[in-house]
Amino acid sequence: MVDQEEEDLKIALRMSMQQHESPEPKRSKPGDGSGEVPEELSEVKNRRLQRELMAAAAEKRMAAAKSSVASVLKSVESVKEVKISGSGDEGKGKSVTLEKCKDKSGNLGTELSSAEAHHLFSMIFGNEVSKDVLAQWSNQGIRFSPDPETSMGLVQHEGGPCGVLAAIQAFVLKYLLFSPEESEVVPNMSTSLGLRRVSKNEYAGDIFSSLSQDKKSRALVRSMVEILFLCGSNEKVVISSLNILDGDIERSVECPDEVIAKALEDLSIDSGSDLQKVLRVYTYTSRSSAFQKLQEMLPAFRSRMGALLFLISALLSRGLDNVQADRDDPSQPLVTAPFGHASQEIVNLLLSGNAAANVFDGKMDLGGGMFVKGISTPVEVGFLTLLESLNFCKVGQYLKCPRWPIWVVGSESHYTVLFALNTEVQDENELESRESQIRRAFDAQDQSGGGGFISVEGFHQVLKETSINLPSEKLEHLCSTGFIVWSEFWQVLLDLDKSLGGVKDSTGLMGKKVFDLYHFNGIAKSIVNGSQASSGTENPIQRPRLTKLRVSVPPRWTPEEFMADVSAPSGEKQNSVEVSKPEPVQHAPLVDCIRTRWNRAVCNWEGDTPSIV
After folding, report:
1. Which ranges constitute the DSSP H helices of 188-232?
2. Where is this region: Disordered (predicted)?
3. pTM confidence score
């Protein structure tokens, strides 16, 4: 390249010298002051011309070099490896890279390698997954309910992916109900997506019915961006798509849902090989770029593959090696057999960015250098479970008291969502604040796996940290069995004077609270005139369920004590007391879940019993 340019320069110089060669000197006429042109002047002109040509050649070489460098950088960028195995130390798990590929529109995308696709499929479904489970996860889109009353809700038609839908639903409600100041700024997007202030007597269903499709879609996309960046440690996201949906199909303006449904008619994913053939992923470090991509892909996420695509996106954003490191038993599939339910690890990943298997705070020491992992940081939306009311686990304060009053609710086989319309339900009164302080110290000494009891040695540490001075007879009674149960300890504190560190309340009003909660179940059920249909000639509609609950938290340990303590003051008529009594108490498994958060709560509602299955 350089030799050719030098040769071109020499030729140019020769031609130039020939063209500009000085003419033969003329003889001067007598009296004419002119003479011959000096040779020195001719040489000066030639040297000047040579320098100009050399400068032009140098500029040409610099322009060519700059163009070459830009081309190389572009080439390097296009083949840059996208590591989806996490950013841990070298040697911590196998690092698998993605192969280069471009989509039809020219945007950079990558396909999973065969090894990575098989690892991903095995991690999600295991090696012996049934066709029924695969069908459940391949036939669930992320779609809003067409019913006006539940229009803010995502509809579930198949069992299994409810854990994914419920977690997304919780974040969608966050953006529809509240306006966090630290929301990421997206171009051409208002940072305030919240609803207007809700009056106490207003029903949430009436408010949600006024939501525009655009506002719901923006809330959904923002929720997906937040979840994926949470999984990606706020550094990057990996968004998964299907290569058959890229290009013209994905950008189809006219009836995109129908176009995509037709494209997916013959698609089935039964193995890692099938996944490798159809999956394409995009990596972003910019929130605005990720927002735009997810917004573009909304028709794909509404398709029957939507829930699975989002789960894969979350796993790849976290990094498969990191996901396995988060788990206590990485040999088990994330989708549980035999019914294909989303595991607690999936739910925790979407809520906290960490695929831990447990719901308590921090780590639990099992002895012998063995630990099991729980939730390590505060969360935006929380989690409650029926299993805690059955003493199978203990939800920690991080999940139980999230930043916003929204909780995914878990039962033995399903996930739903519980929420409030304002943040006041999270405010602690004097009794709750003291209880939280003592309970946090108690749980820190609990090595039973959330069983609610601690050793005598740990109990003395709790008393010291919380400045509780128990009378000797009460202390001896609690320690007589060799371990201390939380419920017995709390009963003693309720009768212990505040000066001794207890929470005794002579007025009986220190802990009283009354507020409203709403429960959303995304399972589409047959509804006729607002109630579940069982038979009849009317045409039922398929829609989710939204139930309003009035929650009362009495000031005593049990509702029975509260009711027994309500008596007419002297000189007042009995009917004035009747008015102050709460409505008849109703019970359902959901109430047991609510009591794990407000452990003296009683609930009532109108219409059908709220279902968590």
Report:
1. 204-208, 213-231
2. 1-48, 562-582
3. 0.72
